[in-house]
Design a protein that fits this description.
alpha+beta, 2 domains, two-stranded antiparallel ribbon, six-stranded antiparallel β-sheet
Amino acid sequence: MAPRILKKPCYGLAELCQRWSVTELDIANFAIAGELTLSVVVVRLPLEEGSVEEMEDGHFADIPERQHWFTGTLDLWPHDVWQVMTAGGHDVTSFRADQGRYRSLWSRDAEAGVFTVRRDRLVLRHAELERFEAAQEAAAAAPPPPPICVGARGAAPKYDWDEFWCEVAVSMQFDGMPASQAAMVRRMEEWFAARDQHPDRSTVKKKIALLWRRHQEALARLPA
């Protein structure tokens, strides 16, 4: 009898839905909320890696370090996962990287600088599966949070950045992309203000900067 495989490098969407008794939409919502990182397996993909540095004018610039052909598993940004799972496929130009780093496609042909990810190609790494399931178990075992006293004074409330990214994704889908990065920042500041929250403008700007830059890179590759 062949041995039973208990650990795989990664898992497909159908297997995850069966394992957790959830729908694909549930998984998409976990992803856009930043609670689950989905990936894609690639073979000999032209990849550029480097660091991200803030310039004097407040914008961010990519500092390339190496270009190489990558084979393996690449993590996707939450907004790209959402587009793949809701539309069935999506062209990506960059992949998730550590803080202060970037991973993006490179090509001598500008029109070839995108990679199409289909929904059936999405996978979850084994390490991410274990991390997510451990987080779910910890949340189930944790005592309920104490009630919040609305009138109490003290430390400023913690900003819910997961909800922030959900709102960014939904607003882009239904309200469209703003005309400028500053307009996107103002849109999200208004969203915070409606919740009676006022994070520092520079913090909101930094969080929008990466998404905006990738969006502009994708636009630049569209045919004239």
